[in-house]
Here is the input.
Amino acid sequence: MSRLAVDGGTPVRTKPFPQWPVYGEAEERLLLEVLHSGKWGGVGRVKLEELEQRFAALQDANYAVSVSNGTVAISLALRAAGVRSGDEVIMPPYTFIATATSALLLGAIPVFADVEPDTLLLDPGKVEAAITPRTKAIVAVHIAGMPANMDRLKQVAGKHGLKLIEDAAQAVGARWNGVGVGAIGDAGTFSFQSSKNLNSGEGGMILTNDKELADMAWSIANVGRIREGAWYQHEHIGWNFRLTEFQAAVLLGQMTRFEEQVALREKNAGLLGQLIADIPGIAGMRRDPRVTRHAHHLYMFRVSKERTGEAGKQEFLRRLAGEGIPASAGYVPLNRNRAVLNEIRQLTGEERVNDCPVCEEACGEVLWLHQNVLLADEEAMHDIARALRKVAESFQP
Here is the structure.
């Protein structure tokens, strides 16, 4: 075994990975068009109209409502679907905190159901066990860009009369059984935050095939107005959560190279999976055959505690970084997050902790590579695999 770079050896890779975001003439031209139009806000609706139509078509949905960010998108989708203060919303604990806070913003109570060990996606069996008379909705998170088991989750939601919301913040372009995520449940939500595969700095989108839900989401995001109403005609309670024409311009520019990027991530993720398959102590995520396209916002893999021992994954990350590979530690379990639990206690008067042992164990083992890494060339995938092997073998089993 060659000497680790952190111990004075030669790193596997010194060449940088692709930077993010990728932008060019398309974004510049579209931004200047907005600038010169004088219609900059969210009511001019020139670029916004085009963006909503194109994004809905990309994901096979009938209706799209652009909003200010991905967290707001989930909150508005839940509210438009009928979730109110005191209702319970079942969700996975392996996700960004915004999934939980989007419900808490409505006064609704997150209930955490554990994830599948080999996908880290919401376990439908655990969802059904968590349903109570107060349950109103399920939020399925397509973590890393891989769709959750939408067939089974739709069955569970339908059986119990619950709304099914897809948190597809990381999954733009992903498809389940050939259908775009966001168009499978009652509504789907997306984020255009800076790290996302389509990005405008900040921004979000709600998709649905339900016109009534779409109209309500639009109204809530537009200060309670209705689409064909007068300017000061407010039929519902709402807020200003509109996206701007500038952000729509950036996103339309980003979409010009989106399909090429999706294909490259799929190709490189497939290659990387083959290259690391026999590395001791390392395992990739299982991909359900019904996932007909994976968005690969993240490439997730597990490093077993048996391999790293007491040193743990932080030491694995340190050694891997020395070899020139930029990985990160990933989430901590939301079902143990003190801020979330404190808010739930204030809303319910109870100390509620949902045990999610699969998630809690995974949080000690799972590492991420971010989507820009998968935009590199094949040589880079070989470098990643060589570095993972080198670091894994540096630990005594």
Remarks:
- The domain at 258-394 is CATH 3.90.1150.10 (Aspartate Aminotransferase, domain 1).
- The first helix runs from residue 25 to 37.
